[in-house]
Amino acid sequence: MAKIINVISDKNVPKWGNKKKYIAIHYLGVVGQNNKVEAGGYGAHYYIYWDGTIYQAAKHDAILWQVGTAGYYTQKHPEARNSNTIGIELCPKCDGNASNPSDPYWYFTTETQEACVQLVKKLMQDLGIPASHVLRHYDIVNKHCPAPYVNNNKYKTSWTWEEFKARISGSSGGSSTDGTGQMYRIRKSWADAGSQIGAYENLDNAKAACKAGYTVYDKDGKAVYSKAETWKATGTATCGGNGVYVRSGPGKSHDPLGQLNKGQRFEVDGNDSGEWVHVKVAGIGIGYMHKDYVVYDQPTASASSWKAIGTATCTGQGVNVRSGPGTSYKSLGQLGKGNRFEVDGQEKNGFIHIKVHLNGKDRIAWISSQYVKRD
Ligand SMILES: [Zn+2]
């Protein structure tokens, strides 16, 4: 293993709490050698020089501005972000026009590339990052970086990106522990490396970062701490498409737990993550669905946005108040003859949209129109 020279500085680190799920490979973009995280937090955790010397410039917990869109690039990767990615800058050379970021004559020395393979393999092992989570900057946003592995023309460069990936995917060197000590990894299950949300040297830090439904594992995969998944539904919804996946985590890289078809019902609890909605589905369990396929029962159902146009009285005994306009929707409680409520003029499938005080709180709900007498 090439030596890693410690030039770590916290000075220009803009943010802390890196989740360490991905590794991004960059090239410096200029002919030269540099090992500093510049003011503003631009830079990477590691820099590799032409002779293969590795410098670590920032702690793994540092979040650096290295793979974001900067309001300019287009996001390509569904999950890799500054907040969960460790960056490695390779110092390149160029025989062409170095002011052109995509010039075909950019290249890496053999020493730089070999050190990069060693460093990536070490980080994969230390941080529990799978080879599928080792990416080019170019795989995350549409930036031509690192040029030699985007051009893939092998100009004075030993490997294409695919060949680099093959080298880090090999199972060689699996037993090396080289003094890095214990790492605690937070995953849904030990086998599901893709579900990892963090890796920590300190068990207390790992416990603090552990989310409901996740377990902290020691370096041998033994569970040392778990946080049970508690579910508190805040609403119900319907699936808006066919063959829609429910996944173990918020992103396409997470394993499917099952599939839903149009019209199938499930619960939501509001603990969404980006474009992914946290759902509980009977027979499948708790997971995430993409928001494009989630049709909420009450899209504007919050008591604060309610706009009453009148009041009404319930004319029946034991009349169900439901979460949606139909008898298939969950009953939130029952009203008796003479109970009062507000209406906002919405009516669907013979059900009227109401705001009613029920079991101690205001609920936005639906009630069959045959039991409603407007004032
Ligand atoms: Zn880059």
In short, what is this structure?
The chain has 375 residues and is mainly beta.
Would you write up a description of this structure?
- The chain is 11% helix and 32% strand.
- It contains five helices and 28 strands.
- The protein folds into four domains: 166 residues, Lysozyme-like; 43 residues, no CATH class; 62 residues, SH3 type barrels (Roll); 72 residues, SH3 Domains (SH3 type barrels, Roll).
- The protein has 375 residues and is mainly beta.
- The protein has a six-stranded mixed sheet with strand order 1-5-4-7-3-10. The chain has a five-stranded antiparallel sheet with strand order 20-19-18-15-21, with no helix packed on it.
- About 3% of the residues have low confidence.
- Helix 1 crosses helix 4.
- A hairpin with a 7-residue loop joins strand 18 and strand 19.
- The chain starts with a strand and ends with a strand.
- Bound molecules: zinc ion (ZN).
- Zinc ion binds next to loops.
- The site of zinc ion has 4 residues, from loops.
What is the terminal separation in angstroms? Answer: 82 Å
DSSP strand tally: 28
Structural domain count: 4
The helix/strand class is mainly beta
Bound molecule types: zinc ion
Gross morphology is: elongated
Helical proportion, percent range: 10-25%
Give the percentage of residues in beta strands.
25-35%
CATH fold name of the largest domain: Lysozyme-like
CATH architecture of the largest domain: 3-Layer(aba) Sandwich
Radius of gyration: 27 Å
Major sheet description: 6 strands, mixed
